[in-house]
Amino acid sequence: MNLFTDIRSLVIESLDTMVSDGTLPAGLDLRNVAVEPPRDVAHGDMATNAAMVLAKPAKKKPRDIAEALAVKLASDDRVTSAEVAGPGFLNLRLAASVWQGIPKSVLGAGLDFGRSKMGQGLKVNVEYVSANPTGPLHVGHTRGAVFGDALASLLDFAGYDVTREYYINDGGGQVDVLARSVYLRYLEAHGQEVAFPDGTYPGDYLIDTGKALKAKVGDAYVDQPEDVWLQEVRTFSTDAMMELIRADLKSLGVVMDKFYSEKSLYGTGRIEAAIGELDDKGLIYEGVLEPPKGKKPEDWEPREQTLFKSTEHGDDVDRPVKKSDGAWTYFAPDIAYHYDKVDRGFDMLIDVFGADHGGYVKRMKAAVSALSDGRVPLDIKLTQLVKLFKDGQEFKMSKRAGTFVTLRDVVDLVGADVTRFVMLTRKNDASLDFDFSKVLEQSKDNPVFYVQYANARICSTLRKASEAGIVTDDATLGAADLSLLDDAAQLSVAKKLAEWPRLVDIAARTHEPHRVAFYLYDLASDLHGLYHLGKSNDDLRFVNTSSQSATHAKLALARAVSIVISAGLGILGVNPAQEMR
Question: At which positions is motif 'HIGH' region (predicted)?
């Protein structure tokens, strides 16, 4: 049930009637007619822009259309008033019975309330994290992991067929560096003194990997030349790091559907096939690029390379796919990887990158556009940096990785639920301050506590009601006389519940899961406000044994809030608290 969609349907039906009776001309495009909450709640419950968007094509004054539409809408039992405002906006007020029916709808649907068919089963690939397999995930990866996972869950809730995917960057030279670093730890495990040259990975996390390599091969690689052990240690080390990364992700509640290896693209003809596809479209040529902006001409060495005409698909400049020495650029396997995604039949692709990949957006979009002939959209979401604080001061934790704070450090300190919720309290492209003191604070200023406390408060209320002999199962509460919810504060909570299905659709359409976190905070605030009113007004107290029917109605409203909070937290990957300690 989406009440905003229902009222929009009423508006469209009324406009169709106005066409039939000659008030409006035929053939109007109604796609931009919207029904939304008004900017100022004092103006009403909903507002429509119908008169504003139809005035010009209808060749009529907006107010004239709005006034005629108001008459049509006011004849519906759900609408108590339709008032024209400003140049032609139409503000609607709905009957109390409409809002009183919302808790019953929530209780009837359960956690599926707000679940949408908007996605129509379209196949979406969400690629996120995709860190180099050279060590444990750091706090920057944490934000991308949480954002990508919540976005995937949100799209699933909105009716898409979602695949969560991790691209293993195991095809480049950084994995050779990893192998050499593990080899040094292997020698160390054999009692040798070792030094880590610049560019290697000195983190303690490789000590166990070096010992594991020793346990596997004994002294077979000791003091052997690199060509003897590099490829075997490379594979061994990558597998060990991916096992570590999987464990890190699991600690955060992230489970991938697919891990795709970059290395699998090399020597298999897949890169050649992708570039060949672009060549067949006339988009590959031999040429010389202009010097990059900011470089002096004497610093630039013009050289002929194999280039992709990415400018024909929205990029600023054409991009090299093969170097002058015949080696592939980093861009080439990425093209092949996305070609594989297109070939697997996905209808939409989403990549979640760190902010340092901003320069990669246009070229990657151009490649997917070219490979799919514009059929498959690619949305690239960038996640900004996370700054760590404690008590307002920049916080430095022990760095087991040697150079950075790990995902596991954060999760071990505050827990997965807190980590995930806090990572979604800002839009992905805004920087985020993560204060370890504040995220554990039990106050309204801590959004994760405030939302969890609202659900725990409801669960506690339901337990107390049950202990008092009041039946509190969902079927009983759903059958309550909800017309008894007649106070403005109660109706305000019901109105906020009614926004949930619309919020899901908007958040899914814009690929913005942080909207869910914001909504849950507002819903929790309304619930807490109503709870506190009950302390001074017995009529608003959730459990009032003097009137069982009124108690059932109020508990139905509270339980509906709990259901929506649980559903929203489920999308964010957070477990709803049943009690607070």
Answer: 131-141
